[in-house]
């Protein structure tokens, strides 16, 4: 099975879990953002050249289900993926703690970036007093899920990770 097929399986699986399980599982009324999680983990593994492309596709898939204009999540996921991958290249070793921290910060940045870009394109109500709390909860939730997502993404990106 090639990388695009594996990524497709992971993306669709994450989307189905997001739309079914995490509709009801929430902390402080906030659910994790699984597509942001897989986008950040992909960037962590494959770097700044391929990571943003993979993150863009994940964001585009998520955009189909969101009320904002198509492409808002895709653009934000790609930008966050590029920043994550670029910063990660300068670090010494890819450790589990590093992955968890990167996922927490990247996921929180995705939430804030989504709200800001959504507001720029005219979507009202995305920026609120609760935005920082939502971003922190999403970041923490995704950080907890990162050790589960990492081996799944490593499987999906096996050829890409080996090439690096």
Topology:
Layout lengths: L2 H18 L13 H13 L4 H13 L8 H18 L6 H25 L10 H26 L1 H6 L1
Explain the overall architecture.
The structure is a single chain. The protein has 164 residues and is mainly alpha-helical. The chain has a single domain, classed as Arp2/3 complex 21 kDa subunit ARPC3 (Orthogonal Bundle), CATH 1.10.1760. Helices cover 73% and strands 0% of the residues. It has helices at residues 3-20, 34-46, 51-63, 72-89, 96-120, 131-156, 158-163.
List keywords for this structure.
single chain; 164 residues; mainly alpha; Arp2/3 complex 21 kDa subunit ARPC3; 7 helices; 73% helix
CATH topology: Arp2/3 complex 21 kDa subunit ARPC3
Which word captures the global form? globular
**Rg computed from alpha carbons, rounded to a whole number of angstroms:** 15 Å
From the coordinates shown, what is the CATH architecture? Orthogonal Bundle
Strand segment tally? 0
The number of helical elements comes to 7
Mean pLDDT across residues: 91
Report how far apart the termini are: 19 Å
* Helix proportion: over 70%
- Quaternary structure classification: single chain
What is the string of SSEs from the N terminus onward? HHHHHHH
Count of all domains: 1
Q: Mind summarizing the main beta sheet?
A: none
């Amino acid at each position: 099975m090639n990388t695009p097929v594996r990524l497709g399986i992971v993306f669709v699986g994450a989307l189905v879990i997001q739309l079914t399980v995490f509709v009801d599982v929430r902390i402080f009324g906030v659910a994790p953002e699984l597509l942001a999680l897989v986008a950040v983990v992909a960037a962590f593994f494959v770097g700044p050249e391929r990571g943003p492309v993979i993150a863009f596709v994940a964001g585009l898939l998520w955009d189909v289900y969101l009320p904002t204009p198509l492409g808002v999540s895709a653009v934000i996921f790609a930008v966050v993926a590029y920043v994550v991958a670029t910063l990660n290249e300068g670090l010494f070793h890819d450790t589990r703690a590093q992955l968890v921290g990167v996922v927490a910060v990247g996921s929180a940045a995705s939430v804030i970036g989504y709200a800001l870009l959504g507001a720029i394109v005219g979507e009202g109500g995305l920026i609120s007093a609760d935005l920082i709390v939502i971003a922190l909860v999403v970041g923490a939730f995704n950080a907890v899920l990162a050790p589960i997502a990492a081996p799944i993404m490593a499987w999906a990106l096996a050829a890409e990770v080996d090439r690096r």
